[in-house]
Amino acid sequence: MSDKDPIKVMVVDDHPMWRDAVARDLAESGFEVVATASDGDQAVRRARAAGPDVLVLDLNLPVKPGVQVCKELVGHNPALRVLVLSASGEHADVLEAVKSGATGYLLKSASTEELLDAVRRTAVGDPVFTPGLAGLVLGEYRRLASDPAPAADPDRPKAPQLTERETEVLRLVAKGLSYKQIAERLVISHRTVQNHVQNTLGKLQLHNRVELVRYAIERGLDDE
Amino acid sequence: MRMSVEQPLWRALTGYRVLTMLYAVGLFATNYEEFDRPGIAIAYYVVLTVWTLATLPRVQSAAACTKRFLTVDLTVAITGIVLTPLAANDHHIQAGGTTLPSIWTAGSVLAFAIKGGWRWAAFASTPVAAANLIERGHPARDTVHNVILVWVASIAIGYVVEVARASERTLARALEIEAATRERERLARDIHDSVLQVLAMVQRRGSVLGGEAAELGRMAGEQEVALRTLVSGGLTPVSRISENAAEGAVVRAVDEETDDDGPVDLRALLAPYAAAKVSFAEPGTPVPLPPPAARELAAAVGAALDNVRRHAGEDARAWILVEDEPDEVIVTVRDDGPGIPEGRLAQAEGEGRLGVALSIRGRLRELGGSAEVISPPGQGTEVELKVPKVSRGKAGKR
Known about the structure:
The complex is a heterodimer. Chain A is α/β, with parallel strands linked by helices.
């Protein structure tokens, strides 16, 4: 992406005050806000029409939940980057959104600078993690690994596992270290830290897709 | 539609009435010669057949089965019993031959039982018993035997119906409560989300406006963290009430308090430490620990956070990370304070300047765990607390 081309952003939030404030902040900082939407259905329709690079998505939406919006849009266009901006950060919702393709997660209590930085990073494909999200993702890998079922069923994909390094990186993220500090601590490059973080998400998303396909085949719905 | 416990009983009763009617007529036909005045019997059977078939819809459900129907039905049965000596010869009566309606009578009494429970059943079987004794003329042994049989059977079935109805009501109530709880949770989620948004917005705008507004913003921020920590893990545990009515679900009051011996969720004890400057990272599933271990661990985290405030200052930020490993629980408390210079850690420890950290270590040793303090240059201080899980057989392990 060249510097001339502003990043195209779409803001989805059912609270007008938030939608406008976020859109205004983004526009003032040189992003191009191509669309806004206030409910799930509207978000899906307008996103397909406007083709944003980054979708700033609230999870608690009327008509259609944010997680569903994320699933549909990323399924339709895998190049779309989704940054979840949530007020309550309910664990189940956040994990579900991340598994279905969101690569960033930020709380609404984050400052404007944090938000702008997060949108920029999301646009170039960098995962945006809060310590809270890192803790959830670590817990999710542990849960998947201790799930007793897989051994019995050979068709079931093996639970995804983190490498030692990935676990190490994720733990440091959860303890609030910046990527720069993590790179220093582990004596690796900033880029490598980003790759590790990205992989932790990628494996979860892949596992989720494989599980979905398996489920669909089991139920005879594979003619989608 | 939900399966009713009662409905099969009504269906069975309908079948019973038709079959026993045919049986009574058949019995009469095969023992025709025992009747002196078959005209009375034939007239009675015509009435019985018409009545039974015409009233089929009456025994489909409790609502259709009115008191008036029950009374007339019982009268038809008793009339049949009393008419028997007039129609049949003495030999038939003395040999213990069947009454005109025969076992059809029981259907009439059972209708009372299914409709109103054991009291109605007892009430209905009494005149039937009396009529049977009158028909026989004297209390013969087999008559008494039959009378008691009808009595006991109808009362028992009446009682079963009452129990079934009571459990059905309880189940309906439980389902109602569950639905209401779900709806309340949904509403609460929406409200919490809105409140959090407003608090976050006040914080955001306040910090931009500065001055007094900044102070308001800071306070809103504190409340935002407190409320978010409370709601982010979901509001209540998922109810385990079975919805399968056909299997006879067990219904009991859901008690929110766990018993004293059961493990507690460590996350719930640590969540209150989250604040504007303290981030709390946790797994999405409960981290069960025995209550004493969980309390000690939570106290140790509290002590570590006090230590952060004392040594790194009020402005220092802190992060709590909870990890649920297969055989141990790890809680890390990190701050972004100045840290402890290299080489000074052991010295400080030796001089007793890590008093709090040492007391934490002592507490954890008693739980069979450990506490490590590390301070990488420029990255603050980390206190890592580890508590082994009590091995509980093969639970969760392979």
